[in-house]
Specification:
The chain is an alpha+beta fold and 248 residues long. It contains nine helices and six strands; from the N terminus they run ααβαββαααββαβαα.
């Protein structure tokens, strides 16, 4: 069995699964492209295999400071957080966290204990949280392709600084062609094309062809609808991430 590795071979696979070329599949090429795009969109929205966790590095330019946001590629589906743009507590060798780490080796090997060290680290984290030190409120909408960071851009960053963003990125099917061979994506796209086929044939419901053959597009449409519902329930139960998965 040939593994689909592109959009065209993927469509050919789906058509063969429906009976082509033995059976003529009455679906237009544009309709095929639409249904494949719809399947990809659903797959990328709900299937965990369609996403990867990445840390993006963005170098600040003058336009970013003027706009108050940084551009984000359309492949980014969710932004978790922006890493702090400055050091915690104070800075330099007099920084509380610096001093704590500086004494870690001596404290843990001599008179200190791991419990005291953990409690100290938790205390410093709480101070950072309460003081909101370095953290910034962010706004992201995947349709705008913008990550807006609420801060004083003129004083917080300068041209040439780097902003690190923790986010989830869609696995690009054009770069990583193995996506086209995903078991679920093949089943779901085939069901969508089958429903489109049934919708097309339902326009001729009851028409008798030479030889006594009668179109039954409604049955084909209903069967495909049932398959789609089962597949959507399957992905939500087995492969969808928890609702709070993207909470940073």
């Amino acid at each position: 069995m040939a593994k689909p590795s592109s959009r065209s071979t993927f469509i050919d696979y789906c058509l063969r699964a429906l009976g082509a070329p033995v059976i003529e599949i009455n679906v237009d090429e544009d309709q095929l492209d639409d249904r494949v795009e719809e399947a990809l969109q659903f797959y990328q929205e709900y299937h965990s295999d369609a996403l990867e966790k990445v840390f993006l590095k963005h170098e600040v330019i003058a336009d970013d400071i003027t706009n108050g946001y940084i551009p984000i590629t359309e492949l980014i589906s969710n932004v978790i957080r922006v890493f702090p743009l400055n050091d915690s507590i104070s800075g330099g060798m007099f920084d509380a966290e610096y001093q704590l780490r500086f004494n870690d080796v001596f404290a843990l090997n001599q008179t200190g204990s791991i419990a005291e060290y953990v409690m100290s680290r938790q205390h410093l984290s709480l101070m950072d949280l309460m003081l909101d030190n370095g953290s910034k409120h962010i706004e992201f909408n995947r349709h705008k392709n913008q990550l807006r960071i609420d801060m004083d851009w003129n004083n917080s960053v300068a041209v040439g600084d780097y902003i690190i963003v923790e986010c989830y990125r869609v696995v690009d099917e054009e770069t990583y062609t193995d996506v086209w061979n995903d078991y679920y994506l093949k089943k779901y796209a085939t069901a969508l094309i089958k429903r489109q086929w049934g919708a097309n044939l339902s326009k001729f419901e009851g028409m008798v062809m030479p030889g006594g053959v009668t179109f039954n597009g409604r049955q084909l449409f209903d069967d495909a609808n049932e398959e789609i519902q089962k597949l959507e329930e399957e992905v939500r139960l087995n492969w969808e991430m928890p609702v709070d998965f993207y909470t940073g």
